[in-house]
Amino acid sequence: GPGQAAMYAGLQELGVANGEDLKETLTNCTEPLKAIEQFQTENGVLLPSLQSALPFLDLHGTPRLEFHQSVFDELREKLLERVSAIALEGKLEERYKKLEDLLEKSFSLVKMPSIQPVVMCVMKHLPKVPEKKLKLVMADKDLYKACAVEVKRQIWQDNQALFGDEVSPLLKQYILEKENILFSNDISVLHNFFSPSPKTRRQGEVVQKLTQMIGKNVKLYDMVLQFLRTLFLRTRNVHYCTLRAELLMSLHDLEVNEICNVDPCHKFTWCLDACIREKFVDNKRARELQGFLDGVKKGQEQVLGDLSMILCDPFAINTLALSTIRHLQDLVGQDTLPRESPDLLLLLRMLSLGQGAWDMIDSQVFKEPKMEAELITKFLPMLMSFVVDDHTFNVDQKLPSEEKGPIPYPSTIPEAYTKFLQENRIACEIGLYYILHITKQRNKNAFLRLLPALVETFSDLAFGDIFLHLLTGNLTLLGDEFALEEFCTSLFDGFFLTACSRKENVHRHVLRLLLHLHHKVAPAKLESLQKALEPTKQSGEAVKELYNQLTEKLELRKPSPAEVTETPSMELPLPTVPTPASR
């Protein structure tokens, strides 16, 4: 049948008899048994010592096929070992010559399932498989599938579209994994999006698969970077920037110098990676990073496009922003102005290069963005004054109160501050990280004071997923405040609900927060929130799913009429921070 034919495909070209030949011999002969014996002798295993042993096997009822099959398997194993050995011995030209000859002889049998592994093994060890053979493999889906990655790389490097088809589902998977973490139902201040170390992240499935596909092939590496740039431009999704850095560092971990040495971002990324690991840019590394930026030579400005993409990685931005907040606090203690701190200015320079990545790659104008003087002379001193307000208030609280009564916490913010958050991207980023900082310190007063400035921010950054993911995590530390009407009104009505109807992601984050903290929220407030957050016809599946989960939880909480009359039992307040042991 046709299946049989495929199994022995290509034998005739090599002058080896197959089933068709036997059929022909038997059809045209007078003594079939003699003919079979002759066919067996001509095409059997030609070892004199076997001639006498075969009848013995026949006596034991072992079919000849089984015997031949076991001999064949044994030989194939030996041949595979031999091919791998040839690939390592003798002079380069000689060993490749041997393998090429072997490929020439065996390629016509590539469709035979029994021989295919040998042919594939020969190709795998050839640094340059002849073009003609590659074309034949490419044209046949099953052969292409069966190929070793070493052979596929040779096919991909001249077929960008085919390589794109292989890479594309991996990139989709990567983005999805990031979004799943940002929207995860586990809300915690200890374990968030930025918790895993760079080394751990690089062990992820997608990064590992891409690293394996690229091998040491610079051309394929460049193609992947081109895909990432294109997708970043098309979607503005910053997770592509993370992948750009992770891929380079994954090759760095494996010491693939063929690629690391030609990527001009390598040393910069390596240094920044160490900062991300520490979640802080120390002075020594700051000098090193500055050296790289100052070292960009005339005519090589294009490297700024790549560096900006590395700096636009949310893990880099997170590290730079946290370091900026820490520097500002130190400056308050030292009574120093922002413009007098070179370290702070460098952090701002890198933040602004990272935040300008999209514009730079889009416009193809490779120069560092201009830093607005007012950011340094007006905005940052304003943030420092907020830090001072907190110190003053705390000291005031400790002083014995005189007749005039306690001094209230400042409740207004300068109009200029709100304007900065609306109009200046870097100011906005730093302002958001300052809010995260005071929330983490459980500073309710400062939080309520600055929250109104977040309703309108540059490019709606305050309603971005990364910020909301971190904010919801930090808000768990203020859990007890949710019992207060005023706090809830400021947070929900004053901030979250202003965007829920126009931004699906905000709707999701609020529901995540309530799923976690509903038992802390004042009952009357909870009821009105449940109404306000009801999904509309336009709502996506994720919102509906979360809303249903919340509704179920609240149903379970409703006391039965009998319980209401009883006196409430004394409940011990639960600690709001999960202790490491309980994780």
TrEMBL record:
Q: Which residues does UniProt assign to the signal peptide?
A: none
Any one Gene Ontology cellular component term annotated for this protein: NELF complex
Coiled-coil regions, chain positions: none
Q: Where is this region: Disordered?
A: 557-583
Biological process (GO), any one: negative regulation of transcription elongation by RNA polymerase II
Pfam families linked: COBRA1 (PF06209)
**InterPro entries, alphabetically?**
COBRA1 (IPR010405)
- According to UniProt, the name of this protein is NELFB factor
The scientific name of the source species is: Ciccaba nigrolineata
Q: Which lineage is the organism of this entry classified under, starting from the top rank?
A: Eukaryota, Metazoa, Chordata, Craniata, Vertebrata
> What gene does the UniProt entry assign to this protein?
Nelfb
